[in-house]
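Aim 2 progress. For Ester cyclase, the working sequence is reproduced below.
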Amino acid sequence: MAAAEIADRYERYIDACNAREFDRLGMFVADDVIASETATGLDAYVRGLEDVVAGFPDYHWNIEQLVVEDGYIAARLTGTGTHRGEFRQVAATQRTVEVQELAVYRTDAGKIAQCWGDLGAVLRDELLSA
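Predicted structure tokens for this construct:
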């Protein structure tokens, strides 16, 4: 798959995440995806995203920079949200946070097959820094 097509699919993946259309992620993420923070598989991958939006109901991912090469994606993202629910054993603080996230993905057949990133830890560290 061409780099431009992979980039377009990734942008649509982020749009689906921002719209909370997690039931559509199978279009963009492989059933046997390997994620750095969660158990293997699409269901576990989706649960990780659902955990983020449970703690930060208004969480929004914004792509700042995107590089696609040889089936790999490097994405620099800004995430913003208000901590209104428990997240990683931290009770709601009502704080609005903005965090920088760097995620690297390996794609296969146009879908995310592996992900390296640590958004959960970044968010938790931000909450505990206050």
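Strands lie at 29-35, 60-69, 72-82, 96-108, 111-116. This observation will guide construct design in the next reporting period.
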